[in-house]
Amino acid sequence: MNATIEHFDSNSNNYSKENQTVISSVNLIICCMGLPLNGIVIWLLGFQIKRNPFTVLILNLAISDFGFIIFAAIYSISNFIDPPFQSWVIFYLFDVMYISGLFLLTVISIDRCVAVLFPMWYHCSRPKYLSPVVCALLWLFSFLLVGIGSNHKNLVFSYVPWDLDWIVTAVLCLPLITISTLILFIKICLKSEQVKRGKLLVMILITLLCFLILTLPLYSYLFITLFLGTNYTSLSLQFLLYRNLCACLNSSINPVIYFLVGRKKQAQAKESMKTIFQRVFKEDEVPGIR
């Protein structure tokens, strides 16, 4: 049985049913807004706009966000059903989408740091098919990691008190994203005026900052409470509910960030979404090569 499903058993008695209903309702509303927004991103980057190595990463992130929002909506709806709907396939894919999104966001942050710090290598020596290969490997690793984490009690990881995928993302993804965000912040806000004009870098910086604001406090709370000796099982449902709420909000707000950064403030006529996305994802926005 998937480890995630265990969060829906007797542990739910330790958490207010009323609070669970409120959070699930808010989460469902966010999902209803996030699905069409990410669908637009997938349609534009997948079929309307010429792809480049960076938009391949953003497209895969949008697919991951879209899938996560779907399964988060299913989970939210299940909280209104008595007994709650439980399927190991749904919750397995739910975790895969979440983990793959974290990995993709980590790679995107590293990609922009490399573009800023080594612009000549990035545009002249970067392997042509690096982005598709990296995305394929990240999806494969996400499926394997969640599969191993879901069955760790039957494997060599039986001594691990938390889900393995939570540990990997907290130890690997969060520090890398934080460091990358600091580097981009210094480059954009404290260094060159030329960098400041780059819409692509501004968009990525805002995306990373929103992710950290929504994610770091939650993981910090989890580690502090566990360090103080709080029972993990009593926290699992609470953490899962708030993590899903923050993740859905983050996944839904990304397309809004792309739109707001890409549009022209003084545009006379109404611009199409395609034009806005083409502007924000232009590769010549990378600093240091103009």
Q: What's the total number of strands?
A: 0
Overall geometric form: globular
N-to-C series of helices and strands: HHHHHHHHHH
The SS-based structural class is mainly alpha
Q: pLDDT under 50 segments (min length 5)? A: 1-14, 153-161, 284-290
Question: How does the major sheet shape up?
Answer: none
Q: Distance between termini?
A: 55 Å
Put simply, the count of helices is 10
* Strand content bin: under 5%
Tag the structure with descriptive keywords.
mainly alpha, 10 helices, 0% strand, globular, disordered N terminus, disordered C terminus
Give a description of the structure:
There is one protein chain. The protein has 290 residues and is mainly α. Helices cover 74% and strands 0% of the residues. The chain contains ten helices and no strands. It has helices at residues 17-48, 53-78, 88-117, 119-124, 130-150, 164-191, 193-196, 199-227, 232-262, 273-280. It is globular, with a radius of gyration of 20 Å. The protein starts with 16 loop residues before the first helix and ends in a 10-residue tail after the last helix. Residues 1-14, 153-161 and 284-290 have low confidence and may be disordered.
Short description:
This protein is mainly alpha-helical. The protein has helices spanning 17-48, 53-78, 88-117, 119-124, 130-150, 164-191, 193-196, 199-227, 232-262, 273-280.
